[in-house]
Input
Amino acid sequence: MYGEPLTYDGLRVDVYQLSKRAGVHFSPHMARRFYARFLYQQGYDLEVIRLILGHEKLDTTKRYMQVDQKDALEVFRKKQPDFFLAEVKLL
Output
């Protein structure tokens, strides 16, 4: 309803309706995952991201973000650009 505080359920319904009209699949949860990965790619520590997301366990945050070796190496290179003299081969 107009003029009433926005609730999570109301936001979720609005987002689903807008994404359907736009012809894309999108949800508030997808936005949350995107934000978490964005923070990680900016170099934020997983523990900080865990606290921001409100997860009790770090394993939940890791699984939630689907961080892989390539992602981790990219974050490391951003923080330490001069560390690698040659390209590192991933396992």
